[in-house]
Write a structure and sequence with these properties.
alpha/beta, Ubiquitin-like (UB roll), Fumarate Reductase Iron-sulfur Protein, Chain B, domain 2, six-stranded mixed sheet, 6 helices, binds iron/sulfur cluster, binds FE2/S2 (inorganic) cluster
Length: about 230
């Protein structure tokens, strides 16, 4: 039977987060409506964040908690809001972060339906309510923390970094001309956030294959363009 507009609507959570048609979660995985945390009474510029919560130790289903925040009390990016919520509203909210400037890859998560770094996603540019989920297609350790053990293991197996066949000289660097160094631009910048890998359309069923594809591309480029001799390909 063709899906009606109402039928398609039923395939979305109240937050607007899309669920694939005909996709049926087991009863223990169904997402429930969680707790609501209202803004302070004196808040003037409020925004709602609907955040995925899951605690495997509780035995309860995952849920969506709603936090109403006062934008004037937080910094400009989504990570600032998450840190503010953890510090002042709900200390149990769990997520990864480290550098807070887009270079470590720790804070990758699904924001408004797209994978982003929370520390580079500007709050004012997100929807209201804003939805925050863990990265797609990965087991969830807790709340917004995905289990990346498998992906990191694949990465280690591929060894997508430069390897030499001779020991490093003890008394000097391996020099390279600026022109040869410039050939590596665009081939080494990946920070391993896994936004692309977990968002790959084939990731749900073939995560291993998509990870191999993603990490082997820059690897091939590095090995081809690198000129520091001798390089092991
Ligand atoms: S290539 Fe993928 S894993 Fe690397 S930084 Fe970009 S989105 Fe993240
Ligand atoms: S905290 Fe390091 S990339 Fe966001």
């Amino acid at each position: 039977m063709a899906a009606t507009a109402a039928g398609r609507g039923e395939n979305r959570l109240a937050s607007g987060f899309p669920i694939p048609a005909k996709f049926r979660l087991g009863p223990q995985s169904r997402i429930t409506e969680g707790q609501t945390w209202p803004a302070a009474e004196d808040a003037t510029r409020t925004k709602q964040l609907r955040i995925y919560r899951y605690n495997p130790d509780s035995g309860e289903n995952p849920g969506i908690d709603t936090y109403e925040i006062d934008l004037d009390r937080y910094g400009p990016v989504v990570l600032d809001a998450l840190i503010g919520i953890k510090n002042t509203i709900d200390p149990t909210l769990t997520f990864r972060r480290s550098c807070r400037e887009g270079v470590c890859g720790s804070c990758a998560m699904n924001i408004d339906g797209s994978n982003w770094l929370a520390c580079t996603r500007v709050l004012e540019e997100t929807r209201d309510p804003l939805t925050v989920y863990p990265l797609n297609n990965l087991p969830v350790v807790k709340d917004l923390v995905p289990d990346q053990t498998h992906l990191l293991g694949q990465h280690t197996a591929i060894k997508p970094w430069l390897r030499t066949q001779t020991p490093t000289p003890p008394d000097r660097e391996r020099l390279q001309s600026p022109e040869d160094r410039a050939k590596l631009d665009g081939l080494y910048e990946c920070i391993l956030c896994f936004c692309c890998t977990s968002g790959c359309p084939s990731g749900g069923t073939e995560t291993a294959i998509s990870a191999l594809r993603c990490t082997s591309k820059p690897t091939a480029g590095l090995w081809t363009a690198a000129t520091r001799p001798p390089v092991n390909a």
